[in-house]
Write a structure and sequence with these properties.
The chain has 724 residues and is α+β, with helices and mostly antiparallel strands. The strands form 4 sheets. Strands 1-2-3-4-6-5 form a 6-stranded antiparallel beta sheet. Bound molecules: adenosine-5'-triphosphate. Adenosine-5'-triphosphate binds next to β2, β3, β4 and β6. It comes from Trapa incisa. GO terms for molecular function: ATP binding; protein serine/threonine kinase activity.
Length: 724
Amino acid sequence: MSQSAVRGRMVGDYLVSRQIGSGSFSVVWHARHRVHGTEVAIKEIATGRLNKKLHESLMSEIFILQRINHPNIIRLHDIIEVPGKIHLVLEYCRGGDLSMYIQYHGRVLEETAKYFMQQLATGLQVLRENNLIHRDLKPQNLLLATRDERSVLKIADFGFARSLQPRGLAETLCGSPLYMAPEIMQLQKYDAKADLWSVGTILYQLVTGKTPFTGNTQIQLLQNIIKSNELHFPPESRDLSFNCKDLCQKLLRRNPVERLTFEEFFNHSFLHHRGLNDSARNSQSARSADCYPATESNLVKMEDSSHDECFPFILEDEGIGSCGSSSLTKMPLVETSKRLIRERDVVRKEVEDNIYNKMGHPSISRYSSSAPVNKSLSGFDIRKPVANRDDPLSFDCQPPSGPHLRVEDTLELIKDYVIVSGPPMDVSSHSESAFKLSHGKQQNLLKTSTDIMPRLSAAEPSIGATDINARCIGSLESCGSAHGTSLVSSDLQDVLERPSAHCMTRIKSLQHCASVIKELVNEKFTAGRQLEAFSIQLVILAIWKQALDICHTRAASSMEGIPSHGTSRSETRSCEDQECPNSGVFSDNFRPEDVSPQIEGEFLREVENAENLAKFIEHECMEMPDAMETIFQSALALGRRGGVEELMGDAETAAVLYSKAAHLLVFLLVEAPSLILNPPFSLTSTDRYRLRNYIELLNRRQGYSRSDAGGTSQVQRPAMPHLK
Ligand SMILES: Nc1ncnc2c1ncn2[C@@H]1O[C@H](COP(=O)(O)OP(=O)(O)OP(=O)(O)O)[C@@H](O)[C@H]1O
């Protein structure tokens, strides 16, 4: 169903508005109750797409959420089932998830980390009392009621969680590799202490901005964990307190026997703070009121677990195990659930009223989501997303050092665009020096009165060293993957990954990037992520600006009689001679100066789009999200979705998703570093290496999917530079 069809529809008594997230098998919507206007998050799951194991995971989530009522555990209000779909009506967490928080704020103050950790500990205490092990603790699964650093944190996503018999061992491979305990990765037996490894990883990431161990593959990650004898902290984290480092070290002990126990964790000095005990105590009454005692009957037997539920790390459904006779599968889902929720809510109300009256002040008030929302998201910025040196899956999230650019400033900048003629631009060769700016000589077709745009307009065309892209664009087979990367020096590979020196090839590459990113802008917009859409839209402007600069440089060189690079008059026909194709793709036969009017048109259209997008942004004083980071994360998300589709047997859709993901990464690798942005975007050789590996992986999976789909898929592999 299209997004627009979904928005504005009713689910039970709830009016659905915008999409706020998505998981491997779910889409999460913001919605309001039609009568009281209560905001909720509706997690929509298409049951037809779930195999037996995934269905059990869903039942597990419902079952767990029903039996727990605690401020640090996401609350399930209702379950609404329609043919083919189950909707979990959850309490709405305005602050999004902790991964977003880290993404926007970078590493956080130790006090903030402590505050979040105390709440995580409290939530885990509740799980423990209910004999539950989460098994997929990661920042994405920790939701925040508000956006500020005093937000209430809630453990969510219990799809992987399982009940655990005391001292029982679970044998299923679950979780996210970066946060996954080594014993799980090694397919050894594991117990509840596996969650504590994940907690250690989250704490480390909060206070350093990076995950403690990394690797390009899960095996490499495991190897890095195994060979590290002692936990290292980055130099910029040397001011961390002894207690904080001590807790990280003791939680991140490879051997679970040596790792802290839950009791030791709960009592560790870093957390030993009135807040933890208070919150735990305050929640105790509410918890005991409606938590179902963990009995034999409601514990899931460990034998029920099998490896085929371990997506996304195992793609094939191995059909292991008969799935046993989980009590969850026997549960008459909707009726029982609704009754339990109704009863629970009545009890919860009574308990909360009771506490309020008895204590004179509401213990729940500290968890109230009505706390003032910090409107200024201080981490938002258009800034250089320096790739995280250690974390292969995310760019570094250090707090921006420069002044933040806010939406209102950006709008002013866009309004300041005017088209003026300038002196002819200096014509550069395609040598190394072509990467440097040559201020004062360029023809400034576009000028602005402010700081950022002069930097945009000061672009000398970044003409790269080779036209290797030309060979790869659109030629899936001939392009292949980056298998050759290991055979060539990384320096040489870096040179080959520079943008094409052939002007028309470069313009086509930029045009292609703009269209792929435009899709992303549309997706973000439809998903209600206007701010992200707007920030990516600015990247599109930079892309078209780059294309324009190339055209003008070429025009200037023709005027001065300097031999052009790549095309000559005799080889080409102008746009007037030859009709531009309907697809809008520029032909190789054109010269840059001929397509310049079209590019100007595109650019102006995109300026207009940016202005239109800006109208949808509610608070103009908000700071800008990091566009390159968003593009990177979106590429990873597309890749994951590709994995899901592949798993579900839809090879064609998988190939399309892999292709889109790879195109975005190729943009980051090849074109983005040469765009004139403020601040500039750059990649280290390690970043480039990682991007290459991801692209290679995506291309490979795309190849498999295409062959599975019988080679009918029309998707293209991206223009991945490579050596044969
Ligand atoms: N109650 C909520 N309030 C606000 N945002 C939410 C809520 N529940 C989920 N989200 C957002 O939606 C995203 C996806 O949530 P969901 O639980 O469907 O998927 P997931 O479990 O994170 O994905 P996967 O199943 O692939 O691990 C979350 O990361 C979060 O950003």
